[in-house]
Amino acid sequence: MSTVFRGLLQKVGSGAHTNKILSRSEAATALDLMLTQQATPAQIGAFLIAHRIRRPTAEELAGMLDVYQCYGPQLTPIAAAYPTLVMGVPYDGRSRTLPLAPLTALVLAAAGCPVIHHGAGVMPTKYGIPLVQMWEHLDVNWRSLSLGAVQEVFARTNLGFIYVPRLFPLVTTLFPYREQIGKRPPLATLELMWCPYAGESILAMGYVHPPTEGLIRGALALHQVPRYLLVKGLEGSPDLPRDRTAIIGTQQPGQDYDRLFLSVQDYELSKTNAPLDATANLGLELVSVLEGNDTELARSVIWNSGFYLWQGGVCGDMATGMALAKELLVSNKALDQLIAVQAAIQRVSGSLG
């Protein structure tokens, strides 16, 4: 048992009127002791559920993010015309709407805008479809790649994926606790903010509950992150919804935090999200979009990609971004990007074998 951790647990786990907020360094110490298993399972479980009930602070999340940045892998900068978009997508996946991130990433990469995803496999509490599985429906397997191999693919194709169980196994020691306590711990918010890239980037994160927006903003301010996007997106992801007005917070260097409100009706789209149909052949559905076919999923991808092409600096406004996204799909340039990623992974896998 860690007596140091016991003291931190006592601060977090006391009653409503007696609990104490951890300092940034104390929160970092708590996470470090949990990741390195110096805290016992009983201590870890108690801390995670107590921290969820009490709710974290921005300073505590900033301290925990310090630990992720200390231990976590990072891709090194590549030459690119635009900042790299790092997408913080909930690790427990999607269960109702189809994830747009892989198709969006292919569209952006085809336009010269690099994209990095990160995540794990199927996880509690939602047990939804994770990004790594979505990529596998496109015949792209990131799970076995070393960090060096991912770096090479990223440099060649503008696309990278940090598969956490392979490249950041230390954090996976805490994954089973999510199932055991039956709730997302505050670590789930931490994962959204993590940036496994050492170059100029734009963090794009999703959220559901309004208080989460404030927590993330506060933590990133303490980390002096100059540029990011916060999207009240589909199932907590940074995918823009179509069935309601998309609410997006934008932080630009040297500017005040601002909000955008985007409605599909202003861009002649229907208010229909692409559903996640378990009976469909998902791979064919995804490839159909890349072949330029006009489907509801394709319209969602154009809506989502247009926004990120605009915010990434490729286009000057949303309408121009959507037009470019459609062109990249219809011309099969996004499909060519997928083929390039498949070939790059085959090349690095062959050299490793």
Structural key phrases:
alpha/beta, Pyrimidine Nucleoside Phosphorylase, Chain A, domain 2, 353 residues, globular, transferase, 15 helices, 47% helix, single chain
| CATH architecture level-2 label of the largest domain | 3-Layer(aba) Sandwich
Helix content: 40-55%
> Would you tell me the structural class of the helices and strands?
alpha/beta
Mean pLDDT: 96
Helix-strand topology string: HHHHEHEHHEHHHEHEEEHHHH
Described by strand count, sense and barrel closure, the largest sheet is: 7 strands, mixed
Q: What would you call the shape?
A: globular
The total beta strand count reads: 7
What's the CATH first level of the largest domain? Alpha Beta
Under CATH, the topology of the largest domain is which? Pyrimidine Nucleoside Phosphorylase, Chain A, domain 2
